[in-house]
């Protein structure tokens, strides 16, 4: 087994606590609402949303994948940290054991925040991820981030309660 890692750092004009709430605490309902072509639904199979929770993500018609099971590994609402893993699904393609993500939100001096995400792909056997595959994963994550950010920028003062 090999481990392939990458990191992504994205800045936002939205305060860290507000972006954490939208992406992490309310993401299961917001993402399907904002990006139904990417994510059709998120259903809790086990747990209460905290560590140990297992979720079934059903992808939308615009996705090449059908579904994936995610496990919440750790969550710290005070430090704005969220860790989860993809543990099952066709996106693993029998060549990846799991994908683990650690996401941290840090307040920036301009009132916005910096979001840092590190990912680890645990590959099976001699399988090697290409740079194009890693880039595609980064682009999907960034697309979700930017869609939620845009939604908040348009709606945060109208009908989104922080």
Question: Topology, pairings included?
Answer:
Layout: E1 2-12, H1 16-25, H2 27-34, E2 39-46, E3 54-59, E4 67-76, E5 81-89, E6 96-107, E7 113-123, H3 131-155
Antiparallel strand pairs: 1-7, 2-3, 3-4, 4-5, 5-6, 6-7
Question: How does this model look, in words?
Answer:
- It is a single chain.
- Strands 1-7-6-5-4-3-2 form a seven-stranded antiparallel beta sheet.
- It is an alpha+beta fold and 162 residues long.
- The protein has helices at residues 16-25, 27-34, 131-155, and strands spanning 2-12, 39-46, 54-59, 67-76, 81-89, 96-107, 113-123.
- The protein contains three helices and seven strands.
- Helix 1 packs across helix 2 (27-34).
- The longest helix has 25 residues, at 131-155.
- Strand 3 (54-59) and strand 4 (67-76) form a beta hairpin.
Q: How many strands, which pairing sense, and closed or not: the largest β-sheet?
A: 7 strands, antiparallel
> Low-confidence spans: pLDDT under 50, at least 5 residues?
none
- How many beta strands in the DSSP annotation? 7
Beta strand %: 35-45%
Quickly give the structural class. alpha+beta
Strand order of the largest sheet: 1-7-6-5-4-3-2
Separation, N- and C-terminal Cα atoms: 43 Å
What's the alpha carbon Rg, rounded to whole Å? 16 Å
Helix and strand sequence: EHHEEEEEEH
Report mean pLDDT, rounded to a whole number: 92
Helix fraction bin: 25-40%
Global outline: globular
Number of helices: 3
């Amino acid at each position: 087994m090999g481990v392939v890692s990458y990191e992504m750092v994205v800045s936002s004009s939205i305060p860290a606590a507000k972006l954490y709430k939208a992406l992490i605490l309310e993401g299961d309902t917001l993402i399907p609402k904002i990006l139904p072509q990417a994510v059709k639904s998120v259903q809790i199979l086990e747990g209460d949303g905290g560590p140990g929770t297992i979720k079934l993500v059903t992808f939308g018609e615009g996705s090449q994948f059908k579904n994936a099971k995610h496990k919440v590994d750790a969550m710290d609402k005070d430090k704005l940290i969220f860790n989860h893993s993809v543990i099952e699904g066709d996106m693993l393609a029998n060549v990846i054991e799991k994908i683990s993500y650690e996401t941290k939100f840090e307040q920036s001096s301009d009132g916005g925040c910096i979001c840092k995400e590190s990912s680890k792909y645990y590959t099976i056997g001699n399988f090697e991820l290409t740079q194009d595959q890693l880039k595609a994963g980064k682009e999907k994550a960034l697309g979700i981030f930017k869609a939620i950010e845009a939604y908040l920028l348009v709606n945060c003062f109208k009908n989104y309660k922080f």
